[in-house]
Design brief:
By secondary structure, the chain is of the alpha+beta class. Helices cover about 30% and strands about 25% of the residues. The protein has one domain: Jelly Rolls. The protein has helices at about 10-25, 40-50, 80-90, 95-105, 230-235, 250-265, 270-280, and strands spanning about 35, 60-65, 70-75, 120-125, 130-135, 145-155, 165-170, 175-180, 185-190, 200, 210-220, 240. Strands 1, 2, 3, 4, 5, 6, 7, 8, 9, 10, 11 and 12 form a 12-stranded antiparallel sheet that branches. Helix 2 (about 40-50) crosses helix 3 (about 80-90). The longest helix is centred in the N-terminal third of the chain and has 17 residues, at about 10-25.
Length: about 280
Amino acid sequence: MEKHPFLNYSIDDLIAFGREQSSAYKSNPPFPNIYFDNFFNADYLREIVAELPDLGGDKKDIHYANPNEIKYASKGEGRFGPKTREFMHFLNSQPFLEFLQELSGIEETLIPDPYFEGGGMHQIKPGGFLKVHVDFHSHKMTHLARRLNVLVYLNENWDEEWGGHFELWEKDMSKCVTKILPVFNRMAMFSTTGNSWHGHPDPLNCPPDRSRRSLALYYYTNGRPKDELSEDQAGRITTTFAARKGQDSAEMSRFNTLVNLANDWLPPAVVRTIKKFRNK
C-alpha cells in the first residue's frame, strides 16, 4: 500500500502499528507513554519548520511568564501556515484517531480538539522552561475529559547539552523516570490522569538563535474512568504544578500555594480570568 503523504506508513499499516505497540505503551513507566522516531515524512516536516513564525511577535500569541513556565504558544490556528494547518488537521482526523485509539487502548471514543486549546505551536526560547505539572483535566468550552497528549518535535541538529528534555516523573514526584530529547521528527505521547507528572523543568541552554519547537495536540473523551482522578483533582480547572524537592525555588512554591487557594475558593470564571491576565 502507498504511504500517506504525511507519514512513513500507509493508513492501514499505521493502525496496525498502533495495535502492535499498545502493550508497550500501556506498560511503559511511570504511566502509559511512548515515543517514535522518524514517524512522519521528514521532508514535509521541514516545510512546516520553514513556515513557523517566531512566537511572541503577534498580540494573539500567548506568553507564559511566571515561576512555573516561561514559554510561548499560539492560540487556535490563526498563526498556522498552510502546511502546518494541513498537518494539524490530519492529526485531528479519523485515521490518526483510530491509530491513537488502538495504541492507547482507551475504550471511550477519542475526540479531537479543533480549537487547539492549550495546544498548537509551542516555542521555548533560551532560558525558558516548563516546570513539572499535571495538565488541566477538562476542556473549558466542550467540558470533555482530556485523555491523551501528542507532541511532535521539530528541532533538527539538536545538541543534548542544550537540554530541553521532556521528563516523565513518578506519581509521587519522587524522581524523574524517563527523559526524552526533543529531536526532529520524534513524536511522544502519553495518557493524561491526575498523576501524570511531566515537564521540561530546567532552563533551556541552547544558543540565542535556536529555540525548542513542538506541535502539541490533545485528545478527549465524553467522560473518563473514575479512578483516573481523585475528587479533589476532578474539581481543578487549571494546570497543577509541583516543585521538585530541593531543585525548584521557594518562589515557585509560594506562587503555587496562591494558585491552589484560588482554585479552591474562587469561582471557575474568576480563576480563568486571573490565569488569562497572568500570561502576557
